[in-house]
Amino acid sequence: MQCYNHSICWFRRDLRLDDHAALYHALKNSRAVHCVFVFDSGILDALSDKQDRRVEFIWHSLYELNVALQQQGSTLQILHGNPVELIPRLARELEVQAVFCNRDYEPLAAQRDAAVAASLSDIDFHQYKDQVIFEQSELLTGGGTPYSVFTPYKNAWLKKLDDFYLRAYPAERYFSSLAKLAPQALPALASLGFLPGKLNVQALPAGASGAAALFEDFVSRIDAYAEARNFPAVKGVSYLSVHLRFGTISIRRVASSAYYSGGAGGQVWLSELIWRDFYQMQLHHHPQLAQGDAFKAQFNDIRFPNEEGKFAAWCEARTGYPLIDAAMRQLNGSGYMHNRLRMVTASFLVKDLHVDWRWGERYFAQHLIDFDLAANNGGWQWAASTGCDAQPWFRIFNPVTQSEKFDAAGRFIRRYVPELAGCPDKWIHAPWLMPVAEQQRCGVLAGKTYPLPVVDHAVARITTLALFKVAAG
């Protein structure tokens, strides 16, 4: 690659300086690199909640990134508007010869990047792999087609993996190539049309330092991950999903840690990271998934009743099933939901309430702080049995038995559904079955202090089997 006098490194889903592919290449091949971030007005304007936790998380992460750049004698240049217009305009104002960035696999992002590249015209546009280990068509079947079943994909992923794919990009070696600029302050959230307040930065620290702290804590307990990850009342998962989403930690760093851990916990976590690559690959090869198409086309026309009242009960955590309501309150109150509960609540919406999975997918997209289009779509289609390598449609989570198995003592339920705090362990998973005298004794009155079930699971299951059987043909 030629050496450029001036370049731009455009930050997006990669809010860190450490092990940053595009930044490494920009610095190595340029005399002066300008670091830029664009608050995309099209994305921000579409957000109805002006206290969106994701925007606040990004703001805090950018603040830390800017401080790190200023310590190197540079600064982060912040723009607000349409990147298709702003990046080419800034490139010409700065008289740069190249723009470097990391690749984004979401269809709208790919269209944006193609438009930016076209607008740059005589300015080089370089993209790099940074948010996954294997991208696009790096892993294909023997017939040259994308994998549609996870296990063969995982086997191919592990077979191909070696030190090269886990090697960090030592961008710090070339920090001297950062453009020397006067410090520039971040715009206030209010100037972007947003207000702070919803993000709990103590519970979920932002930025590369927050990611590093969570990662260090997780590594100390990774050996227990294989079992502990299933229990929402236990500190078993990594809590790094939002940091992987916004790139405040490198996928190579976490995958390397998992791969070389040597224990069962690390291997299970690595499998979860492979699922992440798998869904990104699916979205690249099947962009129609982003438009609401089922991966299995025969399930596009399932005639879900879509009763508004049942959907509202699910959204508002008043289904009468304690584990479901606790999970939805966790989501609504924090922007996070435990991974197992994402599967259980999704299954409940589709297969108990008979509401189209796309409704739930959109709700999660609006509320999850770690929302990622590929993972969210893949997860919902897995639970709804409409996706690639999805749970078979005749397998349906029972919300009561899931509760009994993974929150046996009701610790998670009591945390998020305090009106059930006095309910004995024996009845907390199905309080409507509790004898009336026991209800009165513990102060949990079915249908009064806590809702009755919005549906009967056994009856709902029969309806689900009929719906899917017709669609399956």
* Helix vs. strand class: alpha/beta
Please give the domain count. 3
If strands are numbered along the chain, what order do they take across the biggest sheet?
Answer: 3-2-1-4-5
CATH topology of the largest domain: DNA Cyclobutane Dipyrimidine Photolyase, subunit A, domain 3
Q: What is the second-level CATH architecture of the largest domain? A: Orthogonal Bundle
Strand percentage lies at 5-15%
Count of runs of 4 or more consecutive helical residues:
21
Major sheet details: 5 strands, parallel
Question: CATH top level of the largest domain?
Answer: Mainly Alpha
N-C termini distance = 55 Å
Query: What is the overall pLDDT average?
Result: 96
DSSP strand count:
5
Percent helix, as a range, is 40-55%
Instruction: Name the CATH homologous superfamily of the largest domain.
Output: DNA Cyclobutane Dipyrimidine Photolyase, subunit A, domain 3
Could you tell me the radius of gyration in angstroms?
24 Å
Pattern of helices and strands: EHEHHEHEHEHHHHHHHHHHHHHHHH
* Poorly predicted runs: none
So what's the overall shape?
A: globular
